[in-house]
Amino acid sequence: GCGGQQDSTDDAAPSETGETRDDLVIALATEPTQLDPHYLSDTNSSLVVLNTHDPLFRRLPSGEIEPALAEDYELSEDGTSITLYIRQGVKFQDGTELTAEDVAFSLNRATATAQSEAYTESFKEAVVVDDYTVRLDLLYPDVAVLPLLTQGNNCIVPKHVVEEVGETEYAGNICGTGPYKLVEWQKGAKLVLEANEDYWQGAPAIKRLEYRILAETTTAIVALETGSVDLVMNIGALDAQLVQENPDLAYAETTSTTTYYVGFNCAKAPLDNKLVRKALAMAVDKDAVILGAVDGAGVVAANVMPDGTTGAPAEADQPTIPYDPEAAVKLLEEAGYGPGELTVHLAVREGATKKAGTILQDQWKAIGVNTVVDTLERSAMLNDMYNGNLEAYIVGDVALTMDASMQTSTLDSSTIPYTNSTFYSNPEYDALNDEQAVQMNDPERRVEIITQMMEIEVEDAPRVHLYHPVSNIAYNKNLNVEVSPTVEGYFTYGMSWN
Amino acid sequence: MAKYVIKRLVLLIPVMLGVAFIIFSIMNFIPGDPASLILGESAPAEAREQLNEELGMNDPFIVRFADYIWDALHGDFGESWRTREPVFEEIFARIPTTIYLAAGAMLLAVLLGVPLGILSAVKQYSFLDVLNSVVAMFLSAIPAFWLGLLSILLFALKLRLLPSDGADTASAFILPIVTLALPGAAELLRLTRSTMLEIIRQDYIRTARAKGASERIVIWRHALRNATLPIITVAGMYFGSLLGGSVITESVFSMPGVGSLTITAIRSKDIPQVMACVLLMAALFCLIMLLVDLLYAFLDPRIRARYTK
Amino acid sequence: MSTPLIETVHLKKYFKTNSGMLHAVDDVNLSVQAGETLGIVGESGCGKSTLGRLILRLLDATSGEVRYNGENILTYNKAQMRQMRKELQIIFQDPYSSLNPRMTVSEIIAEPMRVNGMYQDKTALQKRVSELMDTVGLASRLENAYPHELDGGRRQRIGIARALSVNPKFIVCDEPVSALDVSIQAQILNLLMDLQEEIGLTYLFITHNLSVVKHISNEIAVMYLGQCVERAPSKELFQNPMHPYTKALLAAVPVPDLRYRGQKREAIRGEVTSPIDPKPGCRFADRCPHATEACRSQVDLVERTPGHFVACTLYQ
Amino acid sequence: MTKEKVSSRRKKSQMAEIWRRMRKNTAAMIGLAILAVILLVAIFAGVICDYDTQVIAQNMAQRLQPPSAEHWFGTDAYGRDTFARVVYGARISLAIGVAATVGSVLISGFLGAVCGYYGGKVDAVIMRIMDMFLAIPTELLALAIVASLGPSMANLLIAVTVARIPPFTRIVRSSILSVIDQEYIEAARACGASDFIIIVRHVLPNALGPIIIQATMGVGRMILTAAGLSFIGMGVTPPTPEWGSMLSEGREFMRYSPYITLFPGIAIILTSLSLNLLGDGLRDALDPKLKD
Amino acid sequence: MSEQLLEVRDLRVVYESDEETVHAVNGISFSIGKQETLGLVGETGAGKTTTALSILRLLPDRIGKITSGSITYRGEDLLAKTPAQMRKIRGESIAMIFQDPMTSLNPVLTVGDQILEALELHNDEGKSKEELDRRVEEMLELVSIPAVRKKDYPHQFSGGMKQRVVIAMALACNPGLLIADEPTTALDVTIQAQVLAMIGELKEKLETSMLLITHDLGVVAQTCDKVAIMYAGEIIEYGSVEDIFGDRPHHPYTVGLFGSIPDLTVDTDRLKPIAGLMPDPTDLPEGCKFHPRCPHCQEQCKTTRPPVIEKDGHLIQCHLFAKEEEAGV
Ligand SMILES: Nc1ncnc2c1ncn2[C@@H]1O[C@H](COP(=O)(O)OP(=O)(O)OP(=O)(O)O)[C@@H](O)[C@H]1O
Ligand SMILES: Nc1ncnc2c1ncn2[C@@H]1O[C@H](COP(=O)(O)OP(=O)(O)OP(=O)(O)O)[C@@H](O)[C@H]1O
Ligand SMILES: [Mg+2]
Ligand SMILES: [Mg+2]
């Protein structure tokens, strides 16, 4: 029964008797869709999957990558294959042992699945070398292969179970090597996980883990305050302030790897005009945007590459478009637009991007540009974005792999329209992009090339980078937990009660 | 009577087909291909194409609709595109919550609205009547989420009397049920009041008084039975609409109901899920209305006579 | 005899109901000479109003003919019928529900003329309305009044003025005085009779009040459950009623005269039989004290004495 | 023939009569007074405050201020003056409420009239279609419409209008049915009036009572529906000040700056309340049975 | 005259609304003896129903008010009774049959239950359920309705049967006084005859007094012992049936009333209706209320209320006879 446990969570602090708690309730704003690793397509599902399954490598909250199911690896000379040495003695939750078969099967299954395509684009095939060795062949040298292997979509599943229950049924019969097993999923309400006592790193400290779905932020914070929830992720700045004032609660934050930017459709009038784009970019006061969109909980972004991205210069050194509304007016004049003559449609979605849009509307008004802010549903937004129907849009880009390649490809003309929805096409940029991708052995040269690409971007202004929001957590002060910029960082195995 | 029920049930078929058609076409008007929604922004083009093809999105609209209906007639309502689970699995998981909420809210609304409405009618123009009416209008004008959030802040946070969320304990249902019930109670109060006012002017009420019946007998035995008809219609409609899910309340109180599922499904263009949700709700709604009609017959012999003929 | 102004031939109207065919009017043959009044009497629900509506084509007949000056108007198309509407008018039973509550008195009276485009000139129309109000005895100051402000007697006069406005030849009076008080009833009856004298109107006068019908009609038809069971000149019918139903009807009328006090009157026993899918034969048989087996088969209306028709086995 | 002699009847037009009875109803008069103030505010919004400098102009330094002499109702998350926005919002919200009500009343008036007057197959078909729409939850229908047509004031209007048509049609139809049984309809037919004239001149004016009441109450309900749609992100486009969207914009600040939601909330309640009071009063004034 | 069962003295009733005051009953007096039937006759709106409702104190709340007068039943003042005492009297001592049988029965209760209710409400002897049930059947059979039909609902009955159920209900407790308010106006002549015959029989059997309200003089002639003719809230003529229907001098209104009825036995070309219409009850004329319509109207009639002239128990309220009297004396 969960009823009894419900009661025990009513106290925020450890019970008076001094016994430490061994259960944990984490609030999630949206419900995971399904828990088959290779079919993951949303963050919260990944969050849960990374606690029930193990990837080959784990990314720590600090951003470092440490070995998980792979004890070690070896990259081939030409960079087109990576040999993975699998940890021995690891058991799936059904008691069978993990073998190279399972790893190869999982990687190949991910490669074959549309949902995981983004994380397996460079994978060709995984081949079993021996019982505990797998070789992953790549289609081309990919600097980001290790970060990719930390992702939920590349977690390892037991081959025999998938084959037994059938491809599509695994979601309902998950059986990973992870520290937790799913015991109950009340759709729309909560997921309850139980400690895997046989976990290869040892039994976790938290024995019962509950993810509770709390869509409304206010409700989640109230739940935290009343002690029915122990950890809430990504709360608003005002709520953060409230939490910090509460002696029973703790708060931590870090900059996230997400970048919010305005994308201009470079193939559609009037934003096919470089001058107009630049003018709009120069009129943006990013600090005001941060204040309005996330109540100040964000860091000004120079580009889509936050600090820590491999292959990119430190963010402070990245070239950026200056805030200069007067110059912007001049540019507009140059482009032939007097005050009030230009109208731009800006597509946003409900939430932070809509707020940012509302502020941009005001800022662009200051340089004589009228803005129509269209709030679209996700489906409509994506559709119009890919079809090139939008003029400008605000989106958030997650630096999944924290590697520059993935980020630079968003302006490469070969990825139009899906990855590159700005329809920006510049052969010079494309050439540089190809060049940086193969600089595996010369990181300095790579940084140089990428800086060059950033300069081109500043010149052509296909997008205006706004900010990296803060990634934060609010939690019961007796909980040991570290804030992480990525979902992979919230590995509950590392959490415990004081 | 049985014949009537069967006839009504048979009539359900064209109505459900109509509902299916309306929703299917609206869902197809909504821009966006399901593949991008399922796969996420970063999925490559080929994957999208392939998935769209798999889902049959490249077929003409009519073909897809016909396929859907054909499968549905065979009991196959498909799998959710989002979760890849049979659509009814998730719906059935959420239905108990929705039913508790709807039944609780309707019960509370009736228990509050009807007696107060009667009191108002009996004491027309009294202070109590005016107070009732003003409070009722006030309640029916308060936006639902405002009421919800305020009650959470007051009862869950300030007073710590009730939980703010969850559908595990009975106490967790109190706030959402009250939030849902108040506007309904207000509407029922006003309806009961005006119906009762009309009925107590009828000749047969005077007949009862002339027999020497006390006010209590006049109101409860003679007037109320006759006033029940419009009241149960409205209560039935209200219950029906509650069964359809109350997106706002569900979201504010984090109640896993059918309403929020439907909204999520619409947002992610999860056509099979949306279809199943709406069809189920529509069917429930129609069944409730049938029940209301049968209740009519039970309460009013004139209507009973019409059915039994 | 000359061609009657109005004649019904085997006129039938059946209504479809949940429980079967309701024979509201079942094979009725009547005729009215120009300038005369035919009274129709019968119990409530025996089909009097339905008959009136059939003649005006306010309802579509199931079968049979309605002849106006010898022509079957049931075959007329819409345009022809619109012309006919000016000739045939109706005064309704209920002066409360037959006047549009949102129109003023003059608007109501002018409506038929407006609809038929009889006057292009506004002042001429207004003048005609005033004339009509004068004719029926409505003060001209009431022209802007609304019906709800008036009492039943005045309302009924409005109805009469409306019917007269298009100069009809024939008027169906569907219980025009039933809802009114005796003194007002007398006023209206006098008015109708005066008008008949002045402009030679022809009436079909429907009522269940026997004293009234006797007073106003030249000839009376007695209806029972959709059928005409007896027809005779007014005086003849009262002096020499033949059909048992007619007799019962006449006997039931309470007379304001002490001489009849204490007299045991023979009331009809039993309830009215259902008009839905009636059995063949005399429909009064179930309540008739003289019923025999012969009554169970078709009984026709036959002329017993000149001008006096009756449908009863006692007289066959 | 007896001529009229009595002359005690006062002559009154129907409107004057209704107004006279309304005036006696204190509640209705309070409602009317509140509504009048709201209407005046809506009409003179441009005089009370300037759109460009007060309603939409942002001032991040002044965000989330409590009410003060300078900002009577405080400021919102963009530092805009809430008072100015509530005042201008009256225009938008009332426009939505009124336009949607008028739209749905016109359409369902037509459908209901056709159904009620002709009956039979037409009636059956239209009413079954209405039943279908009735069986689809309002919010979903509106959401689906806004999602498919895109968000804009016009589409929001379409959504709330469409959602209201089925129940409205029912009401119109039933009030028409109660009228067409009346003998004056038959009288109109007897004098040769066409169906069109009968519907327009005789049926509709008499069926108007319940429709008027539904309409007055409808306005408030439409504003609430629009507010509900704002909650699920289907509101008007920024920076338009509409009460419902102000309310939902402010909901995450409810604990920190309750004024953002308080004032538009009160505005919605007052509007709805005043229309309800007025509608109730109108119903009583129109109902001859309630003459005592 | 025998001991009076009901005595009404100088009763005045008004209906007051915010807008106007209707003077419905303006100082009427009459009495009903044991087993007597009093006919109350008058045009629509004369105040007949109002008088009846006043006796049972069932005037509409707030609006209807008895402003003066007394109503004595078996020597007790009804106007001084508490509501609870009044409820005991209603149904048990004084019962009423309302104008419209179609709407007087509760559509959702069986007729048996509705009759039973009247019995239960006044079940002072504590009779058992079975006894009461038997009484219900008895009552139904008394009005010629098979007892098995007690489980039926009003809509399953015809108008005449419904009226009979109402009568059964009213008579169930053997009331001393039965008030029948136009019991047959809504019915057909044939049914009307049945119902009237039945009321007469039952009255005999149960020894009940009756106040019969109607505007049908025919009905009065056949059933009443005494007659009161009302006009605009006043009784303008009062006497035995013989007085009213006999060849005596009458109030001009009574004369007009008789003249308005087409006579089945005599042929007339024209009826002689009373000219004009009922006065507006919110604005009654000065003096004699009938003067604007009276063919014998004199100056005096327009200003002073006529005195009541009595002649062997036959009362007439008219200046015409006042003068005669003076002249005679
Ligand atoms: N539209 C209709 N549909 C079904 N039945 C009808 C309809 N109109 C009339 N009837 C039925 O037809 C029969 C005759 O009705 P009609 O109104 O002609 O009677 P009536 O003699 O005028 O009665 P009354 O004296 O009460 O006016 C009745 O049984 C009535 O119920
Ligand atoms: N509830 C009321 N409010 C105001 N006036 C009323 C009310 N009831 C009756 N009246 C008025 O009081 C007067 C007497 O009415 P009452 O019903 O007693 O007349 P009546 O003689 O019974 O008439 P009828 O023959 O139509 O039944 C009428 O003018 C009537 O309009
Ligand atoms: Mg009729
Ligand atoms: Mg009366």
UniProtKB/TrEMBL annotation, chain B:
Superkingdom of origin: Bacteria
Can you quote a single GO CC term?
plasma membrane
Subcellular compartments: Cell membrane
What Pfam families does this protein map onto? BPD_transp_1, BPD_transp_1_N
Q: What is its main location?
A: membrane
Protein family (similarity comment): Belongs to the binding-protein-dependent transport system permease family.
Entry protein name: Peptide ABC transporter permease
Automatic annotation (TrEMBL), chain C:
**A GO MF term:** ATP hydrolysis activity
The UniProt record lists the ABC transporter domain at: 9-250
Give the residues annotated as coiled coil: none
Q: Note the SUPFAM superfamilies from the entry.
A: P-loop containing nucleoside triphosphate hydrolases
| Annotated Pfam families | ABC_tran (PF00005), oligo_HPY (PF08352)
Q: What range does the record give for the signal peptide?
A: none
Q: Which terms are listed as keywords in the entry?
A: ATP-binding, Nucleotide-binding, Transport
List the GO biological process terms.
peptide transport; transmembrane transport
NCBIfam families in UniProt: oligo_HPY (TIGR01727)
- What is stated as this protein's family in its record? Belongs to the ABC transporter superfamily.
Report what the protein is called: ABC transporter ATP-binding protein
TrEMBL record, chain D:
Provide the primary localization: membrane
- Write out the GO biological process terms: transmembrane transport
* Localization per record: Cell membrane
Mind telling me which Pfam families this protein's record contains? Answer: BPD_transp_1 (PF00528), OppC_N (PF12911)
PROSITE patterns on file:
ABC_TM1
Q: Where is the ABC transmembrane type-1 domain?
A: 90-279
This protein's UniProt keywords: Cell membrane, Membrane, Transmembrane, Transmembrane helix, Transport
From the UniProt record, list the coiled-coil ranges: none
Membrane-related topology note? Multi-pass membrane protein
Xref: InterPro entries: BP-dependent_transpt_permease, MetI-like, MetI-like_sf, OppC_N
Give the residue spans that cross the bilayer.
92-119, 140-165, 211-236, 256-278
Annotated Gene Ontology cellular component terms: plasma membrane
Task: Describe the family membership recorded for this protein in Swiss-Prot or TrEMBL.
Answer: Belongs to the binding-protein-dependent transport system permease family.
Q: What is this protein called?
A: Peptide ABC transporter permease
TrEMBL record, chain E:
One Pfam family of this protein, by short name? oligo_HPY
Where is the protein localized?
Answer: Cell membrane
Catalytic activity field: Ni(2+)(out) + ATP + H2O = Ni(2+)(in) + ADP + phosphate + H(+)
Q: What is its main location?
A: membrane
| Recorded GO CC terms | plasma membrane
Entry's EC annotation:
7.2.2.11
**Where's the ABC transporter domain?**
6-257
PROSITE patterns (UniProt xref)? ABC_TRANSPORTER_1, ABC_TRANSPORTER_2
Q: Tell me yes or no: is Translocase among this UniProt entry's keywords.
A: yes
Instruction: Identify the domain of life.
Output: Bacteria
**Which terms does the UniProt entry file under GO BP?**
peptide transport
Tell me which UniProt keywords the record has, alphabetically: ATP-binding, Cell membrane, Ion transport, Membrane, Nickel, Nickel transport, Nucleotide-binding, Translocase, Transport
Q: Give the GO molecular function terms.
A: ABC-type nickel transporter activity; ATP binding; ATP hydrolysis activity
Q: How does it sit in the membrane?
A: Peripheral membrane protein
Assembly: The complex is composed of two ATP-binding proteins (NikD and NikE), two transmembrane proteins (NikB and NikC) and a solute-binding protein (NikA).
- Give the family this protein belongs to, as stated in its UniProt record: Belongs to the ABC transporter superfamily.
Descriptive protein name: Nickel import system ATP-binding protein NikD
Please give the organism.
Pusillibacter faecalis
